[in-house]
């Protein structure tokens, strides 16, 4: 058994650890290093202390982007989970007394499909769906008397349009996920509730949701991570990539533009560090808020 | 529901039936509306791909095109290079998924079943990669690749895809390998099987269901990547190496300049149709594979 154990371990770990160390670990660590430099991406690296962070603190676009990320972070999980839970419940009746509506398999297949599409392609499609003239699907459907809707070109609605696309894409996945969770809830629980004359609504709130809590927690974390991204959508759909007038700017967009367009590798890394702490806060809060069955 | 209790529960059941019918009606409407909202934009894209620019601007999104000509598809395939982007994506994803699965399962296996110093450290190092978004480190990543001369190369893109797929793959498969029984393992050792042989001939086949789930997960994830290719495949002559997502996003910008919307819609259809076909065939495995990844 012990023969050749260490050569084997080293042999099996060498390539994965080298790849992971070079492209992931080193990149994350260098983010922290570059955040304290004024590096443009070329030439020598000069350190400038906390200058980047001071500049961030005074950068209106940064704070607006943080606000937009928080808006997505709060609304994306709430809306997606609410819709997906209701649909999953209707499709399964919580795995319990009734068998769920007819065609539930069909719905599950259709709803899930957007999950397989690249967010970039979804963004191209919805860029056209929301087009401000009659060539857009929605403005083409609306009667002429409604003046054309601006959607992404309207500062007040642009970010909400992006949120809507994220929800559109995500719901099906969580319907399937919650359906799987509901399927594993034991039938007897529902039968007992039915005998006691519990209404569907109280079954939903008093049985299905508590028994699904672990899955809901996972869903919340996944959607939270998705809400921090949104790069493809903002880069492709939004007017002026983050506009109009900064109305859809998010942190991922800011990092990308500073790194690759404005030659501000140092500043981009500082935003990366800010994002690191935002993500940590989110993770800590999620663990705290959802810790329920732990004791 | 037992017959002996009939007198006592007769009334509640009756009112419940009415409630169920009313709710079922609403349920059908809600589900049907969401199905339309899901399929609508895709059907619209398909219809528009056959339309002329004038027809697209008529404001009747779901009207049938006046004639079905495939000219727009020919344009999308050859002039807008959809064919090339598609093949680039297939090439990159095929190699990087294979690499991810090989290296991911090797690392997961060793970390799950062998005791050695640094085991836990390496495991948590891999898993911590799950917690942070990729674009946080995109700036240094670009310069690491640049220093290695890997910017705008398939090799660079493939290595990065593998590296960024490892955290989830290792996390998922380590749990899987851990759960495999030890008896068979020991029997194989007694029979004189080497560690490597045991891995490839005994453990891999036993972990098959987990391997399939995570392969699907990685294929879908890598096929849909956008940020990494956009950041890595840039520079002179990069457009011949673009992957599908990048290519389509670019066609979308170009279509705006030249007002060639039907080519864009044809390109979109060409990129969506293969997915629908694959999904129609493997729909059960795909749903299971992707959601298993989330639950584990």
Automatic annotation (TrEMBL), chain A:
InterPro entries: ABC_transporter_permease (IPR051393), MetI-like (IPR000515), MetI-like_sf (IPR035906). Keywords: Cell membrane, Membrane, Transmembrane, Transmembrane helix, Transport. It is a multi-pass membrane protein. GO terms for biological process: transmembrane transport. Residues 66-286 form the ABC transmembrane type-1 domain. GO terms for cellular component: plasma membrane. Pfam families: BPD_transp_1. The chain crosses the membrane at residues 7-29, 70-91, 111-130, 157-182, 203-228, 267-287. It is found in: Cell membrane. Belongs to the binding-protein-dependent transport system permease family. PANTHER family: ABC TRANSPORTER PERMEASE PROTEIN, DIACETYLCHITOBIOSE UPTAKE SYSTEM PERMEASE PROTEIN NGCF. This is Putative ABC transporter permease protein.
From TrEMBL, chain B:
Its main location: membrane. It is a multi-pass membrane protein. The keyword NAD does not apply. It is found in: Cell membrane. It comes from the Bacteria. GO terms for biological process: transmembrane transport. It holds the Pfam family BPD_transp_1. Keywords: Cell membrane, Membrane, Transmembrane, Transmembrane helix, Transport. The chain crosses the membrane at residues 26-47, 85-109, 121-145, 157-178, 261-282. GO terms for cellular component: plasma membrane. Residues 86-282 form the ABC transmembrane type-1 domain. SUPFAM superfamilies: MetI-like. The keyword Transmembrane applies. Belongs to the binding-protein-dependent transport system permease family. This is Putative ABC transporter permease protein. It comes from Actinoplanes missouriensis (strain ATCC 14538 / DSM 43046 / CBS 188.64 / JCM 3121 / NBRC 102363 / NCIMB 12654 / NRRL B-3342 / UNCC 431).
């Amino acid at each position: 058994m012990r023969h050749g154990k260490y050569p084997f371990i080293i042999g099996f770990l060498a390539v994965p650890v080298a790849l992971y160390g070079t492209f992931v670990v080193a990149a994350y660590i260098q983010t922290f290093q570059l955040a304290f430099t004024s590096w443009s991406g070329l030439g020598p690296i000069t350190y400038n202390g906390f200058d980047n962070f001071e500049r961030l603190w005074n950068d209106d676009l940064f704070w607006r982007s943080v606000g937009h990320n928080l808006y997505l972070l709060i609304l994306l999980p709430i809306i997606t989970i609410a819709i997906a839970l209701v649909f999953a419940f209707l499709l399964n009746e919580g795995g319990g007394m009734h068998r769920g509506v007819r065609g539930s398999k069909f719905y599950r297949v259709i709803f899930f499909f957007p999950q397989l599409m690249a967010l970039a392609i979804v963004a191209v499609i919805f860029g056209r769906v929301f087009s401000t003239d009659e060539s857009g699907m929605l403005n083409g459907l609306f009667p002429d008397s409604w003046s054309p809707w601006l959607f992404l070109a309207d500062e007040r609605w642009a970010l909400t349009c992006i949120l809507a696309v994220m929800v559109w894409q995500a719901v099906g996945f969580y319907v399937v996920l919650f359906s799987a969770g509901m399927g594993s809830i034991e039938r007897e629980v529902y039968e007992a509730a039915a005998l006691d004359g519990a209404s569907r609504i109280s079954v939903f709130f008093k049985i299905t949701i508590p028994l699904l809590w672990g899955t809901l927690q996972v869903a919340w974390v996944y959607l939270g991570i998705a809400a921090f991204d949104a790069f493809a959508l903002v880069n492709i759909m939004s007017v002026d990539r983050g506009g109009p007038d900064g109305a859809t700017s998010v942190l991922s967009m800011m990092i990308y533009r500073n790194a690759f367009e404005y030659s501000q590798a140092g500043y981009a890394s500082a935003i990366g560090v800010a994002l690191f702490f935002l993500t940590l806060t989110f993770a800590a809060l999620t663990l705290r808020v959802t810790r329920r069955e732990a004791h | 529901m037992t017959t002996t209790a009939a007198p006592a529960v007769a009334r509640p059941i009756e009112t419940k039936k009415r409630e169920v019918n009313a709710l079922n009606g609403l349920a059908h409407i809600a589900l049907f509306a969401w199905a339309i909202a899901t399929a609508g934009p895709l059907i619209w894209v398909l219809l528009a791909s056959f339309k002329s620019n004038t027809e697209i601007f008529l404001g009747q999104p779901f009207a049938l095109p006046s004639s079905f000509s495939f000219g727009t598809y020919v344009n999308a395939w050859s002039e807008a290079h959809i064919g090339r982007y598609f093949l680039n994506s297939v090439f990159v994803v095929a190699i990087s998924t294979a690499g991810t699965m090989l290296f991911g399962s090797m690392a997961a296996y060793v970390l799950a079943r062998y005791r050695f110093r640094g085991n836990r450290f390496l495991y948590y190092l891999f898993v911590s990669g799950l917690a942070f978004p990729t674009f946080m480190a995109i700036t240094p990543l670009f310069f690491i690749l640049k220093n290695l001369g890997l910017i705008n190369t398939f090799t660079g893109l493939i290595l990065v895809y593998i590296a960024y797929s490892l955290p989830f793959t290792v996390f998922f498969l380590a749990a899987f390998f851990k759960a495999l029984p030890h008896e068979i393992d020991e029997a194989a050792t007694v029979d004189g099987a080497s560690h490597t042989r045991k891995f490839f001939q005994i453990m891999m086949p036993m972990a098959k269901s987990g391997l399939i789930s995570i392969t699907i997960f990685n294929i879908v994830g890598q096929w849909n990547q956008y940020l990494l290719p956009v950041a890595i495949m840039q520079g002179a002559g990069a457009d011949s190496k673009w992957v599908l997502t990048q290519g389509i996003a670019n066609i979308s910008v170009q279509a705006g300049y030249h007002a060639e919307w039907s080519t864009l819609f044809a390109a979109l259809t060409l990129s969506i149709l293969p997915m629908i076909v694959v999904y129609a065939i493997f729909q059960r495995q795909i749903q299971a594979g992707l959601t298993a990844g989330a639950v584990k």
